[in-house]
Amino acid sequence: MVETLRKIFLADLLTGLWVTFKTQRTSNIVTEQYPLERPRVGERFRGAPRLNNNPENGETLCIGCDLCAKACPENLIVVGTERNKETRRLDLTYFTYDLSRCMFCGLCEDACPVDALELTQDFEMASYTRDGLIWDRQMLEEGPRPTPYTR
Amino acid sequence: MTNHLETSEMVLNMGPQHPSTHGVLRLILKLDGERVKSIECVIGYLHRGVEKIGENRTYAQFAPYVDRMDYVAAVSNGLGYCLAVEKLIGIEAPPRAQFVRVIFAELNRIASHLLWLGTSALDLGAMTALFYTMREREDVLKIFENYCGARLTTHAFRIGGLQYELHDTFEAELLAFCASFPARLDEYERLLTQNPIWVDRLKGIGILTAADCKAYAVSGPVLRAAGLPWDLRKAQPYSSYDQFDFDIPTGQNADSYDRYLVRIEEMRQSLRIIRQALDRIPSGPILAKVPKVLKPAPGEIYSSIEAPKGELGYYIVSDGSLQPWRLRVRPPSFLNLAALEKMAVGALVADVVAIIGTLDFVLGEVDR
Ligand code: SF4
Ligand code: SF4
Questions:
Q1: Is residue B216 part of a domain?
Q2: Distance CA B126, CA B112 (A)
Q3: Percent helix, strand and coil across chain A, each rounded to 5?
Q4: Which of B75, B213, B214, B356 could connect to B108 by a Cys-Cys bridge, CB 3.0–4.6 Å?
Q5: How confident is the model at residue B4, as a pLDDT?
Q6: Residue A9: how many other CB atoms lie within 10 Å
Q7: pLDDT at residue B2 is higher than 60
Q8: Which CATH number characterizes residue B244's domain?
């Protein structure tokens, strides 16, 4: 009897439709509209590397200690330094970072004693060439410039 | 005159690109009609030589690589590795770090089981489950991302404890997840547990008895579905697991359906552990005193944990240098996969898909 009534009033169909409509609320939408909207990644996200400059005088924070290169399991950081005769300190001459082999483990960032090297929240690092993935010091200081997306 | 048609055995290649082999597994099936007469696994398509890489890296440097073995349960891999090295150098992580590790390992168990549930339901034709499980898995991955900056290959723990202190919104995120997840689990169960198609495709399929499990060294949910309550978290507690109250779900029939039930129940138990750990999380340091340069004394150790897929062990031989002399991983997936032949011979081709699904292996870990 109950079974027949359920059939007449399409109870199962309605239950099914209810499930469908229940998930139609905007608060339940989980799809991200990338690239129209850039997703907000976590604050600690390990993405594109950046070599930080001192905000006051624009000089690099890096002291050329080579610790990041030693910490990296993939050996992909090359730090070039030169001893400055006057200040007797190491001056950074070049800094290359091979993104194509980086696995964003964060060990280099942890090793840096002065927070010069940092993995940032940028994640748009694609390049058409392998060479484009080898970042030099200028690229590391400026960060990636992804093409803006337009419709 | 005979009516028999001329039938002969057929050799069928399943994979390495078959979607239901979950990665790059190639199966050579010898078929008699629809019945599987013999089955041969061809592995190694994803071989990266992780163990060899380990011999050429320092102990700290190797930690990110273990995430790439079982990439759906990277946190557990990392935990196993950190515990193994800690055992080798004779230190222990501080209590706070242990609790945080437990929380993340259990979250990862949930994420891993969710991915398993979604994909194997998809293989068997129940597509809806995938969307639901992926939604919940996203919540877990978001917590990982906010905590350590990566979603999949997390590198969340360091030898001796943790690198990162818990982020500010951690508790709120975790509480929200704990509050919503039980209802979601019930939702999956409403979708699948009584679903006649699901039950028909899993009940009595791929039976692996407890004795066979032992013979093949199968561990994890597959073993527990055969009725053996063997769980390393209880059998040899590590990382403060002895301080939590949880049950080990077991099955009786040792078939695919029981494996499904065991995993669903395991997610509930994981949630229980997470709640307890969150309530009682002690304060204090998160990193033990670890020498800057890790140079363990010569020796060898084996240390294992209960990863979502079974017993994950690390065997490390140190010769007193900066790098391990030998590093061997005992991957649960590889040993569980070995039992596939036992389960699948005599079954139908379509059942092989169900058996592969409920065995739950990850080829990244099988091949390493
Ligand atoms: S993130 Fe890891 S792999 Fe990449 S440069 Fe830093 S240490 Fe090397
Ligand atoms: S560790 Fe930091 S300071 Fe040292 S070389 Fe690397 S980026 Fe420069």
A1: yes
A2: 18
A3: 30, 15, 55
A4: B75
A5: 64
A6: 10
A7: no
A8: 1.10.645.10
Name the DSSP class of B252: S
Per-residue pLDDT band at B203 (split at 50, 70, 90): confident
Burial class, B34, CB count within 10 angstroms (exposed 0-12 / middle 13-18 / buried 19+): exposed
In 3D space, the residue among A13, A73, A116 whose CA is nearest the CA of residue B59 turns out to be: A73
CB-hemisphere CA count at 13 Å for B292? 5
Q: How far apart are CA A87 and CA A94, in angstroms?
A: 19
- Judge whether B246 lies within some domain: yes
- Which domains does chain A show, CATH number per domain? 49-142 (3.30.70.3270)
A and B: number of Cβ contacts within 8 A: 48
Residue type, A97: Y
Q: Of the candidates B64, B145, B155, which has its C-beta nearest A41's C-beta?
A: B145
Residue B27 inside a domain? The answer is no
**How confident is residue B315, by pLDDT bands cut at 50, 70 and 90?**
very high
Q: Domain residues for B261? A: 48-367
In whole angstroms, what is the distance from residue A90 CA to residue A109 CA?
A: 20
pLDDT tens-digit map of B22-46: 778 888 888 887 888 888 888 888 8
Q: Closest Cα to residue A49, out of A95, A82, A93? A: A95
Nearest CB partner across the interface for B149, out of A30, A46, A107: A46
pTM: 0.85
How many domains are contained in chain B? 1
Residue B345 lies in a domain: yes
Distance from CA of B59 to the nearest CA of A (A): 10
Percent of chain A scoring above 90 in pLDDT? 0
